[in-house]
Design goal:
Structural class of chain A: mainly beta
Largest sheet of chain B: 7 strands, mixed
Helix content of chain A: under 10%
Order of helices and strands of chain B: EEEEEEEEEEE
Helix content of chain B: under 10%
Radius of gyration of chain A: 13 Å
Order of helices and strands of chain A: EEEEEEEEEEE
Structural class of chain B: mainly beta
Number of helices of chain B: 0
Radius of gyration of chain B: 13 Å
Shape of chain A: globular
Distance between the termini of chain B: 38 Å
Distance between the termini of chain A: 41 Å
Number of helices of chain A: 0
Largest interface: A-B, 22 and 22 residues
Strand content of chain A: over 45%
Oligomer: heterodimer
Strand content of chain B: over 45%
Shape of chain B: globular
Number of strands of chain A: 11
Chain lengths: ~110, ~120
């Protein structure tokens, strides 16, 4: 059974820091991995999608890497801003159309 | 990009009544839609998968008769919480997948409170 874990569960940092959020999954047979952002009481916004054949994806200050063989993905946030404060979720697609979500990392960036 | 509209964003209902939540794909045809439930400070739990024109597939432990899902068209799926009780209070989120794309687009969620 695929399990997805995110570390840390919560993170509080001052503005300007570079951050690394971790996501690990137990079964490497995945189709793709997606990172999402969720603001309190809101739905999910897709940040980055990495196909199983890819190593990384970049969008602005965000960079996500994927090491399928070791079951790990990292989301790198450069020069963090208060507006980045949210919960970040990773989700794997194990070829079944169903996303399996991680436990999430609650990020707070203070001025 | 792909947009999924979910309504209502919040609803308060009395115990024993039914509530319908709508999920629409605005600029693509959603061959598959998903319904999730999220408890406070927890991750998303998949409730059911629906494919246009066929019956929904429910996850283990989800009551089919309580959570009715209809996916009658390629742009609309509905979740009806029947005979709602306070324990059904939660945040419900839908997601749609365009058959041509690889990613998933999520609605903005519905906060259901049963009093």
């Amino acid at each position: 059974k695929q399990e997805v874990t995110q570390i840390p569960a919560a993170l509080s940092v001052p503005e300007g820091e570079n951050l690394v959020l971790n996501c690990s999954f137990t079964d490497s047979a995945i189709y793709n991995l997606q990172w999402f952002r969720q603001d309190p009481g809101k739905g999910l916004t897709s940040l980055l999608l990495i196909q199983s054949s890819q190593r990384e994806q970049t969008s602005g200050r965000l960079n996500a890497s994927l090491d399928k063989s070791s079951g790990r993905s990292t989301l790198y946030i450069a020069a963090s801003q208060p507006g980045d404060s949210a919960t970040y979720l990773c989700a794997v697609n194990p070829n079944t159309d169903k996303l399996i979500f991680g436990t999430g990392t609650r990020l707070q960036v203070f001025p | 990009g792909a947009v999924v509209s979910q309504h209502p964003s919040w609803v308060i209902c009395k115990s024993g009544t039914s509530v319908k939540i709508e999920c629409r794909s605005l600029d693509f045809q959603a061959t598959t839609m998903f319904w999730y439930r999220q408890f406070p400070k927890q991750s998303l739990m998949l409730m059911a998968t629906s494919n246009e024109g066929s019956k929904a597939t429910y996850e283990q432990g989800v009551e089919k008769d309580k959570f009715l899902i209809n996916h009658a068209s390629l742009t609309l799926s509905t979740l009806t919480v029947t005979s709602a009780h306070p324990e059904d209070s939660s945040f419900y989120i839908c997601s749609a997948r365009d058959g041509r794309r690889y990613g998933y687009t999520f609605g903005s969620g519905t906060r259901l409170t049963v009093v």
